[in-house]
Amino acid sequence: PWRRLHAAGFGRWWAADFKVSPGAPMLRAGERGGAVLELQVALDKIGYAIEGSGIYDSHTEAAVRAFQRHWRQDQVDGVSDAETTSLIHHIAEQMTVRRLSSERAG
Q: What is the percent of the chain where pLDDT is above 70?
C-alpha cells in the first residue's frame, strides 16, 4: 500500500532509479564495525530512534525489521541483506536532500 500512497502524494517511496549498491554488506545480529555504525546512522536519519554503537544488537535488529515491514514486506527478518542495506542508505539520502531543500526554502 505504501507505493500507492506515495503515488497519490502521501509519504515516501524509493526513487525509480534505485539500484542495489555493488558490494553492499549483509549485516546481522552480532556483527560490529563501521558498516554497522553507518547503517544505524542511516536508520536514525529515517526516523528509527537508534543509537549508533557500531554493534548490530537487538535494537538494530528491531529497527531493521520495522524498516522491512514498511519498505520490504517480502523480507521481514531483521537481517540487513545487500538490498535492505542499500535501500536504507537510499531512503536516508532522500531524507537528507529533502531536509536541505526545506531549510533553503524556509
A: 76
